[in-house]
Amino acid sequence: MTYKSYLFSLTLRVLGLLVALTLLAYGIAWLNTYAIIGGTFATVIAVYNLYQFVIKRFMEVDDFFESVKYRDFSRWFVETKGPQDIRELHKGFNLVNKTIKAIDSERQAQFVYLQKILEMVNIGIIAYNVESGDVLWTNDSFLKTLDFPSFKNISFIEKRRPKIYDELFDTYHSNTASVTLEMRQETLKVLISDTVFEMAEHSFKLIVLQNIEETLNRNESEAWKKLLSVMTHEIMNSIAPITSLAETLQKNIQSSLEQPQTSELELEDINAGLNSIKKRSEGLMKFAKTYRSLNKVTHVNKTKVKASNLFSSIEELLKPSLEDKNVTLIFELNDPILTFEIDAYLIEQVLINLILNAIDATNMVANPKIFVSANISHKGTGQIKVTDNGSGIPEEIMDSIFVPFFSTKKTGSGIGLSLCKQIMLLHGGKIQLQSMESKGTVVSLLF
C-alpha cells in the first residue's frame, strides 16, 4: 500500500514535469513568449516539487537509519500527519522499532535470567578480553573462591597475586586440570578449565573454576565414616567371641586354682579354647592384611606384554589348583602376537582373582568350563574376557559386586573385585560385568 501511494504521487509529479517541459519546448519552437514564460515557470515549480517530494522521503529514511545507527529504538514516528505514503512509512518504522525493542527486552530478560543462574552456582566463572584484559563478566563465586574484591581488569590480579595470575590467565588448560593455588595463608585445590571464543572481532577467554577442597574433605570424611563402620563391625565380630571364650577359660582356671579338689582343670578344653582364640586372632590379622591390600596399589609399571605369555604364566600358576577341582580352563587367543601395554604383575593378579571366582561359581555345575580370551574390539580397544558357565550373579546384587567388603561367600573378604576395579582404573581402563543366573558370567577387562 505504501509503495502504490508513493508510486502514484511520484508519477503525477513526473507527468507534471513532462507537461511543463513540453510547454517550454513548444514556446521555444514557435517563439511564443507566453508559452516560454509559462513553461519555464511550470518547469521550475515541477522540478522543485519533485525534488522536495523525493528528498523528503530520503530524509525520513535517513532519519530512521540514523536512529538505528545509534540504537535509538525508543523514537516514535508520527503516524497521523503528513502525506499518506509518509504515514505508512512511519508505521513501518514504528513497527520495526517495536519489534527490535521486544527482541531486545526478551534478550535482556534471558541475560538477567542466565546471570542469576550463574550467580547461584557454586562454580567460579570469569570472561575477559584477551587483548585488553578487560573483564566482560564474573560471578561472586569466582571472587569468593579466590578472596578477591570486584575488579574490572585482570591486571589487578597480576599486580597483587602474580602466581595465581600465571596459573589462571597465562596458562591454557586444554582439559580440566586439578591445580593447587597458593593463597595468602593457605593452599587451595581447584579444578580449572578454560576456552577462548571470538565475539565482535575480539577474542575472549572463559575460565571456569571449581573449589574441590571442601568436596574432597567431605568425601574423605564420608569415606572414613564408612571405613570405621566396616572396621568396627568386622573387628567386633572377631573380638566378641574371643572375649567370651577368654572369660570362660579364665573362670575355669580361677575355679581350679581356688578349689583344686572339686574343680578339675581340663587341659583338652583349655587347649581347644586357646586354639579357637588363635584361629580367631589369625582371622582378624587376615582381615587387617586384606584391608591393607586396598591401599597397597597406588601406581602401575606398564610394559609391553604378549597376551600369549600372560596366559601361559597364569595357566602354570593355576594348574595345581585346577587338578583337584575338575574344572576345564581354556585360553583362547586368535592373534598369537597380540600385545598389551600393562603392568603384568597386577593384571595377573586380576585374572587369577577372576578365574578363582569363576571356579567357585562353577562348583555346582556338571561340566564346569572357564574361557579366557583376548582380542581387539571393533572400536580398537584391547580387551580380555573371563567367561564361565557357572551359577551367575543375582540381579539384585549386581550393583554391589564391586563395593569393598561386600561378599556373598561365607569365607570371602569382599576385597577381590574391588581390588580388580582399582587396578583397572590405574591402567586407565575399566571392568565390566555381564551375568545371568544359572547361565554364567562374563567379566571384561577393557584397556
TrEMBL record:
Its EC number is 2.7.13.3. Keywords: Kinase, Membrane, Phosphoprotein, Transferase, Transmembrane, Transmembrane helix. Coiled coil: none annotated. InterPro entries: HATPase_C_sf (IPR036890), HATPase_dom (IPR003594), His_kinase_dom (IPR005467), Sig_transdc_His_kin-like_C (IPR004358). The keyword Disulfide bond does not apply. It comes from the Bacteria. Residues 230-447 form the Histidine kinase domain. It holds the Pfam family HATPase_c. The chain crosses the membrane at residues 7-28, 34-51. The keyword Kinase applies. GO terms for molecular function: phosphorelay sensor kinase activity. It catalyses: ATP + protein L-histidine = ADP + protein N-phospho-L-histidine. Gene3D superfamilies: Histidine kinase-like ATPase, C-terminal domain. This is histidine kinase. It comes from Gelidibacter salicanalis. The lineage of its organism: Bacteria, Pseudomonadati, Bacteroidota, Flavobacteriia, Flavobacteriales.
